[in-house]
Amino acid sequence: MPEPAEKDDMTDGRGAIRAGALPARPRLRAELMDFLRFALRPRPGRRLPGRAAGHGVWVDFLPNVRFTRLLQWAALLWLANLFVFGPLAVSAAEMGGAQHRLSLLNLPWMQALIWAPIVEELTFRHALRRPAMLWWFVPLMASVIVQGAGFASGLLAAAALLLCLAPLWSPSGAPLRGAWRLSWARRRQVLRWYPWLYHLSSIAFGAVHLYNFHLHEMPATLMPLLVLPQWFTGLVLGWMRVRRGIGASMLLHALFNAGPLLVVLLILHFAPGAAA
Fold this sequence. Notes:
With 276 residues, the protein is an all-alpha fold. Helix content is 59%, strand content 1%.
């Protein structure tokens, strides 16, 4: 007997990708245009072509996209942040006197490549497809972020991940109604406010990264400029989560973090004096 198809909370097709609008393997340009349309008018709608078959809850954690395409999106993010948003953030830091907490000689590699992609994606973007979980799951994951990477927070994150997969063990879904699924009336309400949900998730994602700085006496008006790179990256990750799945957004998040870390590794190897 085949596994049930995906049943998430956001199945309205208005403003979505029309069936057949994109080929089985859409070009990067087509995906880029879809992202721009989505960012201007966020609607959950259909998934991009190429999604794996199987139970939707499980498939949501699969990549559902080629690694080369994820690498292309990571490269676009690196370029946008290097030439557009990064310089604005640096200028704001210089004007406000903010200093980055991280040292090139003591970077949290495992936190950047594993902990942050999993925990931050579950916190800020998992509910973009399952908003019924907003009221209990997001606070749970927020407590993990507040604790920071560690053994206790790791256990709590693992428990939260298992809760995400709970519908797999309850195919009927009866015990999960209310905590995992929305009524049709609630879905219509969420769809009305969906643009706020999408954009606020990106703003919150950026705001959390203010912790990476010693702000000193920096004016509050300059603080949003410090996290412009994270805000824009959050927009792309949110689109990736909705169109491909939470697994794809986690992988893209990890790839995005890996780029600067690789540059630092090369600096430490070939020019350690510059790093110091």
